[in-house]
Amino acid sequence: xxxxxxxxxxxxxxxxxxxxxxxxxxxxxxxxxxxxxxxxxxxxxxxxxxxxxxxxxxxxxxxxxxxxxxxxxxxxxxxxxxxxxxxxxxxxxxxxxxxxxxxxxxxxxxxxxxxxxxxxxxxxxxxxxxxxxxxxxxxxxxxxxxxxxxxxxxxxxxxxxxxxxxxxxxxxxxxxxxxxxxxxxxxxxxxxxxxxxxxxxxxxxxxxxxxxxxxxxxxxxxxxxxxxxxxxxxxxxxxxx
Length: 241
Description:
Helix content is 37%, strand content 13%. The chain has helices at 28-31, 49-63, 89-96, 122-127, 138-143, 148-160, 173-177, 181-192, 222-240, and strands at 4-5, 37-41, 79-83, 101-105, 132-135, 164-169, 205-208.
């Protein structure tokens, strides 16, 4: 099993995705068996296609020489993934792909097709070049009422379509203050990954995004996040084994 923890520090993204560098024993090789990932969620920005293409071009100028496409022979190569709004995905991909930057979708619906006005299927975003899909983002959970059952269906649908889900987990400020962050995130992991096999986990990215550190001015420090991710990793590793 390989768990990948994403690091997000890219343009419009404010998520606290943390790369865990803590010392491990037997699981150290497994958790870092894949290349590091830097992921940036554009959310509902920018507002017009021209600005989205300009943002993509600026990104390639800033990161093009320091990043590369996924290369199994180069372990130090950082995979960069961006998540533009749906209408801009295809054209932004054309702008950034030569620099080795991957595009993903910010969400999707777990059905393949049907009478679901306004919904987008995993196969649709895959057909325009997406390799990743965010699942369980805190804003999807709170503003759009995505519950764990829906998130679990999304994760499994993304995997069934041959893409990689980035599962976002994290506690609220109230849950943090009550010192139940481990319990909250353990519950999210167990519910959202229900039915996902150990073999499928090699394609799953776990992103820790403490909700209390998003847009509040509060900061989740690297040391605190790394310690937290270490505990979560071993708890979940024991769970699926």
